[in-house]
UniProtKB/TrEMBL annotation:
Domain VOC, chain residue ranges per copy: 4-148
A Pfam entry, by short name: Glyoxalase
Organism: Formimonas warabiya
Alphabetical list of Gene3D superfamilies matching this protein: 2,3-Dihydroxybiphenyl 1,2-Dioxygenase, domain 1
Name the UniProt record assigns to this protein: Glyoxalase
Length: 153
């Protein structure tokens, strides 16, 4: 049995703005074509009458060739009362390993995102220091930034 992780989907109020945010902050690259999906098959799949989805897939950084993607979509009709919290049931956050957590957090803020909680450093076994922070994209989706440093001994 073959199993392969394919993508994570974000439903955005404005898929183009959210897609540009991830491109600018994390270097994600659009994978053509842009999607414009509708029809009976989509209504059956989603259980939503007259569903219409627009958006695109983004190649995630750090992969060569065949990689998982971040799928940014908008529906013609959306439920917007979905509070995003770090301890909410369901998918909680996307995580990116970065060289400089503070610098990427600053880019997130410059592009209209925000910070959730404090930037922290903590010691792990074997002389490893981890740096973490939770941030939010421009529509409030939670992003974890992490960096791992092995102490030179």
């Amino acid at each position: 049995m073959k199993i392969k992780y394919v993508h994570t989907n974000i439903i955005a109020k404005d898929w183009k703005r959210v897609s540009l945010f991830y491109q600018k902050v994390f270097g994600c690259q659009p994978i053509p074509p842009q999607r414009d999906l509708r029809g009976g098959w989509l209504d059956k799949l989603t259980g939503i009458q007259n569903a219409h989805i627009t958006g695109e897939h983004l190649a995630l950084p750090g992969y060569d060739g065949n990689y998982p993607t971040l799928e940014i979509f908008s529906y013609n009709s959306m439920m917007t009362d979905n509070p995003k919290t770090v301890n909410g049931v369901g998918l909680a956050h996307l995580a990116f390993e970065v060289d400089d957590v503070a610098a990427v957090l600053q880019r997130i803020k410059q592009e209209g995102g925000g910070q959730l909680g404090e930037l922290i450093k903590t010691e792990y076994p074997n002389y490893v220091t981890a740096t973490f922070v939770y941030a939010k994209d421009i529509e409030g989706n939670i992003i974890e930034l992490q960096s791992w440093e092995k102490e030179k001994i």
